[in-house]
Request: fold
Amino acid sequence: METGKNFDVIIIGGSYAGLSAAMTLGRSLRSVLVIDSNQACNRQTPYSHNFLTQDGVAPASIKEKAQQQVLAYPTVILRQDLVTDGENLGDHFRITTLKNETFHAKKLIFATGLKDIMPEVPGVSECWGISVIHCPYCHGYEVRSEKTGIFANGDLAFHYAQLIANLTGDLAIFTHGKSLLTPEQTRQIRSRNIPIIEKEIARIDHQHGKIQQLVFQDGSTYPLDALYTRPHFKQHCPLPEKMGCLLTEQGTLQIDMLQRTNVKHIFACGDNASPIRSVASAVAAGNFAGAAVNKELVEEEF
Reply:
């Protein structure tokens, strides 16, 4: 293996989970390479919330500060690059990048996140993370008491209604077609004076990502300040699957209690392996994954 390109651990993905894992490993004097393509899924979100000590801070600022602190440890190296391939060579892994560099490591951590697949409604992508939001815990307080919508159907719409009714008295559900809510769900929702609108949405009118109104296929409109939705997603990086890592039914990487995938010596942390998508959760998962990887190294060496 080429000198200078052999590491204890390679972390693919250098956002919140990846950097958190790198800090734990760097403090344990492990040689760590973090490879980051700088494509965080929340890069359009103006502020991060519900994260102790970082409430209201821009996600990019959190990441920048995290990089500075992690790279203060001389055992951690960061490469701005995109991983394109990985091979399991039995006693170690070989990773190749878009810049045609090759690196080797005993352990891999995938902290590669998820890629959201937006509904095919013009305006959703432009408003995503700004006024089209997914998490009441991350964003709900900031849009409390505002004119709010739920862009969902069936059980998801009902679950959102339960969570959000506590945050605003001006709430409506947009099912974008025939409602799939059960009669009992419909009764409970209407008992709270929450309208269920089955019209198909044609587009979202907005100003710089801030919703002005929904426009329906029949030309009618509905003014809004915020809209909750949960888009479909896929793994941001196809490499874990290519290397044999299994997915859960929900599409996240399958891990055990120690953040291990089903492939020996490959770990995962952050959004790609969790149903909870928040900066705080990603940091916690990365911290734990780093400790779990170091535990495995210690047991092999001692």
User: Anything to note?
Assistant: The mean pLDDT is 94. Residues 150 and 160 are 7 Å apart (CA to CA).
